[in-house]
Amino acid sequence: MSPTNPRILPYGTAAIAEAAALIRAGECVAVPTETVYGLAADATESRAVAGIYAAKGRPSFNPLIVHVPDLAAAERIAVFDPQARDLATRFWPGPLTLVLPVRPDAGIASLVTAGLDTIAIRVPRHRAMQALLEASGKPLAAPSANASGSISPTRAEHVAKSLAGRIPLVIDDGATPAGVESTIVMGNQILRPGPLTQAELFPGESRGPGLESDSPGDPGPRLSLGNGEGVIAPGQLDSHYAPSKPVRLNATEAKNGEYLIGFGPIHGTETLSATGDLTEAAANLFDTLHRADASDAPAIAVAPIPASGIGLAINDRLRRAAF
Questions:
Q1: Dihedral angle sign, alpha carbons of residues 31, 34, 235, 190
Q2: What is the CA 141 to chain-centroid distance, rounded?
Q3: CA-to-CA distance for 104 and 27, rounded, in angstroms?
Q4: pTM for the whole structure
Q5: Residue 280: burial class (beta carbons within 10 Å; 0-12, 13-18, 19+)
Q6: Within 13 Å, how many C-alpha atoms sit on residue 147's CB side?
Q7: Which residues make Cβ contacts (< 8 Å) with residue 27, sequence separation at least 6?
Q8: CA angle at 64 for the pair 61 and 68, rounded to the nearest 5°
Q9: Residue 235: its pLDDT value, please?
Q10: If you write DSSP's letter for every residue of 270-281 in order, what string do you get?
């Protein structure tokens, strides 16, 4: 492993081959997905998975998402009921993670599930992760490729800065398109909001209490269980996605030299979306937080974001960043 920064290789056959060789040797490599960059290792090898926890400084009670190439591969690892199979058929490959009972013969390292009898699993759409799954021939545990609790990476340079000296390789395939982590579902409950919304996942069903709000500045529901013993899926810790500076939410103007991140009619130092487009805002969120954190401003302020649709996921990440 490099004593300083990881190597960054552009996506291509050579980069995937080198990454797959590292995976087979028990190393971790960073690879883009359609959501954020992931830190991938062989999900069947305990020592490889331990390398993820070590690189991220991640609490061992926090489980990891396993990435597989298709539904058939997922069904060899997890037990699907009809509802889960319907969701997988409709949204895989894509930014949906399902929490399901793990099969006793799944062959997944116990560190991946943090001792739980369930597993978080998804089929990614991004070409780089799909290529790495094929080349390595392994299910890949892959949380976000950043130090635990810090801002999630949407570009290769974010990974290199956050995990300098901790991993050997980053595959660079540009900015990730979604910009926020996958939606996590268990049964008919959204455990972590993401690119796929309640209305898309469960059309025609009345929304659960607090799941959506049309009011700008409403942070939406607190879906995290908020403690180590209660965590049943990745991304549920209250303090997460956090810059090194204080973050103030629902700000309409900057105070005391804050770096104001605008949205819609509120113009800041820069904006997530000048037109109020929530999809654009989600794609820009972590990239903007990285720039704000690297600025000379002593603190960060963020304009109100409507807590509806993918705005629910944006508010979830911002609440944890400000916790």
A1: negative
A2: 12
A3: 25
A4: 0.82
A5: middle
A6: 11
A7: 1, 41, 48, 51, 167, 168, 169
A8: 160
A9: 65
A10: EES-TT--HHHH
Q: What DSSP line would sit under 147-167, residue for residue? A: STTBPPPSSHHHHHHHTTTT-
State the number of CA atoms in the 13 A half-sphere of 322 facing the CB. 17
Dist CA 237 CA 251 (whole Å): 24
Q: Would you say 302 and 217 are in contact if contact means Cβ atoms under 8 Å apart? A: no
Give the three-class secondary structure for 308: coil
Residue 103: which of 61, 69, 133, 139 has the closest Cα?
A: 139
Q: What's the chain's Rg over C-alpha atoms?
A: 19
Residue 312 and residue 278: Cα distance in Å, rounded? Answer: 10
**Inter-CA distances, 218 with 124, 213, 215, 237, 243, Å:** 31, 7, 6, 20, 21
Q: How many Cα atoms are found within 13 Å in the side-chain-facing hemisphere of 276?
A: 9
Number of C-beta neighbours around residue 112 at 10 A: 27
**Cα–Cα nearest to 142, from 131, 133, 134, 151:** 133
Q: Copy the structure tokens of residue 167.
A: 């991993």
- Averaged pLDDT score across all residues of the chain: 88
Mean pLDDT of 233-246: 74
Residue corresponding to tokens 């901790």:
166
Provide the token pair at 123.
């089929």
